[in-house]
Structure of Branched-chain amino acid ABC transporter permease:
Amino acid sequence: MDPKTLLQNFINGLSLGSLYALIAIGYTMVYGILRLINFAHGDIFMMAVYFALFFVTLAQLPWYLAAIFAIACAALLGFTVDRIAYKPIRSAPRISALITAIGVSFFLESLAVVVFSGIPRSFRTVFPQSLNEMIIIGGEMEVKYGREVIIGGIRFPVISLITLIVAAIALVFLWWFIFKTKVGMAMRAVSLDIQTTSLMGVNVDRVIGMTFALGSALAAIGGILWAIRYPQVWPYMGFIPGMKAFVAAVFGGIGSVPGAVLGGLILGITEVMMVGIMPSAAGYRDAFAFFILIIILSLKPSGLLGKQEAVKV
């Protein structure tokens, strides 16, 4: 692989990894507080894309307002899911919460099939077409057989650059929110000791609801960027990205926000590089993520930045 192709793949991998990181943060934030794997997280990702599609096509809103409203609706959906599905079983065994999470996932997927139908819909006309154009650094252009051909240079989609910028802004906002606001302080306190925090007068249920809302909003941002990158929407589109983001969260150390970001970036870069080095293995790129999960769970179950928890018996 020549240096230009290597850099091109690195940029694309970094962009893809940023999407995984945005989704993985939702998994790791919820787990950090409730010790719950929210398997419905990928379906909130999917619902956010449908919300954006609805606001543009039926409500006739500009694309930027549609994106904002879709993110807000996804945050509200995450908050509602916590209130209806998870809050009543706070004190139940973990297996009950896990089964509930799987049930919520199936419910959202089935709801999307009923409301939006199971037929894939195009997302290509929802956002400006310029987002899918190519950025060309260096190289020359010539016309060959009636088509423009780039000779040399580095090419990557505009959406890759936008994804990196949006992800960076979202992560900076998340850092500010967690470390500079009272709600963020409460989230950190609840993640350390939920019972003691409750005794100190913190409304734990409200904090948990805010955590679900914030994680869902980040998943919505990732979902909209994902749909621009891969412009097709269907009710099960959140499964594979959601599972890969879960792998990224485990890889980085589930419960650790920096770990989720690091795991997502490493997974995205490794996945794209693998396909670039071995194009014949492109059909196995999804399986590659789960292979990484098996290796990590075998060698370092706590992940790269995770901490081994002591179990009281």
About this structure: The CA atoms of residues 139 and 153 lie 4 Å apart. The chain is about 70% helix and 5% strand. Confidence is low (pLDDT under 50) at residues 141-151.
